[in-house]
TrEMBL record:
<dbReference type="GO" id="GO:0051287">
    <property type="term" value="F:NAD binding"/>
</dbReference>
<dbReference type="InterPro" id="IPR013328">
    <property type="entry name" value="6PGD_dom2"/>
</dbReference>
<dbReference type="InterPro" id="IPR029154">
    <property type="entry name" value="HIBADH-like_NADP-bd"/>
</dbReference>
<feature type="domain" description="3-hydroxyisobutyrate dehydrogenase-like NAD-binding">
    <location>
        <begin position="176"/>
        <end position="295"/>
    </location>
</feature>
<feature type="domain" description="6-phosphogluconate dehydrogenase NADP-binding">
    <location>
        <begin position="4"/>
        <end position="173"/>
    </location>
</feature>
<protein>
    <submittedName>
        <fullName>NAD(P)-dependent oxidoreductase</fullName>
    </submittedName>
</protein>
<feature type="active site">
    <location>
        <position position="182"/>
    </location>
</feature>
<dbReference type="GO" id="GO:0050661">
    <property type="term" value="F:NADP binding"/>
</dbReference>
<keyword id="KW-0560">Oxidoreductase</keyword>
<dbReference type="InterPro" id="IPR015815">
    <property type="entry name" value="HIBADH-related"/>
</dbReference>
<dbReference type="InterPro" id="IPR006115">
    <property type="entry name" value="6PGDH_NADP-bd"/>
</dbReference>
<dbReference type="GO" id="GO:0016616">
    <property type="term" value="F:oxidoreductase activity, acting on the CH-OH group of donors, NAD or NADP as acceptor"/>
</dbReference>
<dbReference type="InterPro" id="IPR036291">
    <property type="entry name" value="NAD(P)-bd_dom_sf"/>
</dbReference>
<dbReference type="Pfam" id="PF14833">
    <property type="entry name" value="NAD_binding_11"/>
</dbReference>
<dbReference type="InterPro" id="IPR008927">
    <property type="entry name" value="6-PGluconate_DH-like_C_sf"/>
</dbReference>
<dbReference type="Pfam" id="PF03446">
    <property type="entry name" value="NAD_binding_2"/>
</dbReference>
<keyword id="KW-0520">NAD</keyword>
Length: 303
């Protein structure tokens, strides 16, 4: 039996995921509040729908790619306090059919994943948190990596769809664990971007070109996603067009600080880096590319 897939949130990531699944011959229906996003998805073989109710009529699996945890919670459970006849009450909980699987690829919070999963389970709907890495290019080519929080039996049912959308999947634990792992990943990415900017700037002042330094770093133990992907693709050429916004990275850095605080931990290096991301809002607004943070390290070299 063919699995019919719905994708909610057709932005930089969700648009690419929907197009990838359509290329893999899944019937794909897409919903986004933005008409422009729906039109772009339609051009990539996705059937756009203009309401959540219409989407939920036909699908077996729904993928979420929304900005933040609060969007996930509202879409899954409806706005708290909304009356049954209000638009905001429309939710997966109210309209989803038993047997539906929700794959949430949003970088969200572990608490949101667990809360939503528990509520949806009361209607026989399963929930997986599967946040992703790999950017819009990874989404559009099906080469993203996923860290997954799920029960084994639900994961097995979702696997054909997950395999079509991603190159690597690591099952890190039960529901919520995917977001713990993703928050840890982005905490490191946020540190690496700034520390690489400092290392490249120092070496440039000492007479080694950024290009040559990166070649050396990538052959040595200083390599990371920042030296292998971010600097060569978006920083050294001053393109700053990764498709990942400053606002979303600030959100992820905030998620790491919140999780650290909830655990009662003090992590001095991460706290300093979080402060730098916070301070950067004085000169870089949320719509900028996240890589532009390096301009605060050395405006002459990176500006
Ligand atoms: P985006 O802003 O490009 O896309 C989000 C889309 O969701 C928008 O098109 C918006 O209109 C839509 N949307 C918001 N609320 C909605 C609702 N209630 N119903 C339907 N549509 C709604 O964001 P993005 O860059 O695609 O990121 C999506 C998620 O993936 C975020 O959690 C982000 O942190 C994560 N992520 C992004 C990247 C990246 O490189 N962009 C990489 C890894 C993870």
């Amino acid at each position: 039996m063919t699995t019919t897939v719905g994708v909610i949130g057709l932005g930089n990531m969700g648009g690419g995921m929907a197009a990838t699944l359509a290329r893999h011959a899944f019937p794909v229906f897409g919903f986004d509040l933005s008409e422009a996003a729906r039109e772009k998805a339609a051009a990539a073989g996705v059937t756009p729908v203009s309401s959540l109710a219409e989407l939920l009529e036909t699908i077996d699996i729904v993928i979420l790619s929304l900005p933040k945890a609060e969007h996930v919670e509202q879409l899954c459970l409806g706005r708290e306090g909304a009356q049954e006849n209000e638009q905001d009450a429309i939710s997966l909980l109210a309209l989803g059919k038993p047997g539906l699987i929700v794959i949430d690829t949003t970088t969200s919070t572990p608490e949101t994943s667990r809360k939503v999963a528990a509520a949806l389970a009361t209607r026989g709907i399963d929930f997986i948190d599967a946040p992703v890495s790999g950017g819009p290019k990874g989404a559009a080519t099906g080469s993203m990596s996923m860290v997954i929080g799920a029960e084994d039996d639900v994961l097995a049912r979702a696997m054909p769809v997950l395999e079509a959308m991603s190159g690597t999947r690591v099952h890190v634990g039960s529901c919520g664990a995917g977001n713990v792992a993703k928050i840890a990943n982005n905490m490191l990415a946020a540190c690496h971007l700034i520390s690489t900017a400092e290392a490249v700037s120092m070496a440039a002042r000492a007479g080694v070109s950024p290009e040559k330094l990166l070649e050396g770093l990538n052959a040595g133990s200083g390599r990371s996603g920042a030296t292998q992907v971010m600097f060569p693709s978006w920083v050294i050429n001053k393109a700053y067009d990764s498709g990942f916004s400053m606002g979303l990275m600030r959100k992820d850095v905030g998620l790491a600080s919140d999780l650290t605080a909830r655990l009662g931990m003090e992590l001095p290096l991460s706290a300093t880096v979080a402060q730098l991301w916070d301070d950067s809002s004085a000169t870089l607004d949320d719509s900028e590319d996240f890589c532009a943070i390096v301009q605060r390290t050395d405006p002459t070299l990176y500006g």
